[in-house]
Amino acid sequence: MSSPSLAPLLERAVAHLAPEMPLLTELGDLFTSEGHELALVGGPVRDAFLGRTSPDIDLTTSASPEQTEKLLKQWGDATWDMGRTFGTIGTRRGATVVEVTTYRADAYEPESRKPIVAFGTSLHDDLIRRDFTVNAMALRLPDLSFEDPHGGLVDLAARRLRTPSTPEVSFSDDPLRMMRAARFSSQLGFTVDDPTRTAMTEMSDRLAIVSAERVRDELTKLLLSPSPRAGLTLLVDTGLADQMLPELPALRLEVDEHHRHKDVYEHSLIVLEQAIELEGPRTVRGLGAVEPVSGPDLVLRLAALLHDIGKPPTRRFEAGGGVSFHHHEVVGAKMTRNRLRALRFDKDTVKAVSRLVELHLRFHGYGGGEWTDSAVRRYVTDSGPLLSRLHLLTRSDCTTRNRRKAERLSRTYDDLEVRIAKIQEDEELAAVRPELDGNQIAETLGIKPSPVLGRAYKFLLAVRLDQGPIGEDGARHELLRWWAEQPESRDR
């Protein structure tokens, strides 16, 4: 861009940074007074031009990590080593956190999962090793001179992702950048230019050297973005998903004229989009406002994306041209558990997502509302704390184009939620327990703590779910009737 066209853009970007400018200027003065360079770089600069508030203040410097640490200790309330090997020192003043990284020029060895870190000698050398040109812009401090050696501002205006060096070199240096391209396409609505997309496709297998934790973090950021579909589609189309989430491209089941069924891949993306639309405040016919699932919710979005991954391995062609996917929810839950563990998700997330996948078909047994109160109780207790998410997942799983059918399913689920609310109000299902505790069971049966006591407890819990509250006397009656049928009772 020419200087006249750049000037107003730069003014607006600096104006957007106004709250941080006194701090940035002070840091710039501190570093330059000691003979070092300092610049605001990457995401904060990009976001300032976009008018977005960046969550980070990322700075780069010619100073060594040791020199940086010494200066930051003079300036901040607290200073810590965020990764001295990688040249990053963190500091905090008040509520503001700043990260300062020494100029870098690192790369991966062909088979290594960790980059070889090499410190650079100039800002331009540092910028060329950045992932994309829109992140390879900098504002020198304290004078605010703008550095854009790779045309990042032009690409920003075009909403285009392009690498500063050749994409082959960039992705070889850090293969995770290919996933980052997908993430930015979802977060920022950018498109990937053709050479970059071609390199992503040709080098997709290079992603295998990146640690599962780094892949997980990029996938998480993508899924929590406003429009995950764009990034997920890019991952699948370039073959990157085959490396880190192969269950997703496997959903693209072939459809022919003799075996017609839904495009499971497209269906899953629509379910994800519909689940996202339901996040936040919502109302239910007959109930009004109900407990929301605040967005963006990672557990819900993972479950929506993965709920049908059990279909490919369970697909069967039936006589007459039909297709079945019997027990795909059970198979899918196991596959989900294995994949999320491989990606190093935490135990709670793995457990919650796989449970939602397992339960996602349960509603379809509800039919026109024929469930007994017992079945409704089990629906609630089986979902436990995931009930609100299960409501959204189940509603999102309707992607029919038949308007009447969609409205009928919506009304039926409204009815189920009303029934759940009524039973919860009457019976406090969230804390449902057998009406006799372990001590009372042992006393009634005259037994000591043992596996049979556990069986008796589970039996009374089933009675509670099937019959609702029946009182302690009723529970003892049912317990004694059950006990009379157990082989242990005849041994006494």
From TrEMBL:
Q: Does the keyword RNA-binding apply?
A: yes
Identify the keywords attached in UniProt to this record, alphabetized. Answer: ATP-binding, Magnesium, Metal-binding, Nucleotide-binding, Nucleotidyltransferase, RNA repair, RNA-binding, Transferase, tRNA processing
Domain HD/PDEase, first and last residues per copy: 260-411
CDD domains from the UniProt entry: HDc, NT_ClassII-CCAase
Query: What InterPro entries does its record include?
Result: HD/PDEase_dom, HD_domain, HDIG_dom, NT_sf, PolA_pol_head_dom, PolyA_RNA-bd, tRNA_adenylyltransferase, tRNA_CCA-adding_enzyme
Names of required cofactors? Mg(2+)
The keyword Nucleotide-binding is annotated on this UniProt entry? yes
Single GO MF annotation: nucleotidyltransferase activity
Q: Which residues form the signal peptide?
A: none
Q: Give the GO terms filed under biological process for this record.
A: RNA repair; tRNA processing
Pfam families, A to Z: HD (PF01966), PolyA_pol (PF01743), PolyA_pol_RNAbd (PF12627)
Name of the protein in its database record? RNA nucleotidyltransferase
Per the UniProt record, the lineage of the source organism begins with: Bacteria, Bacillati, Actinomycetota, Actinomycetes, Micrococcales
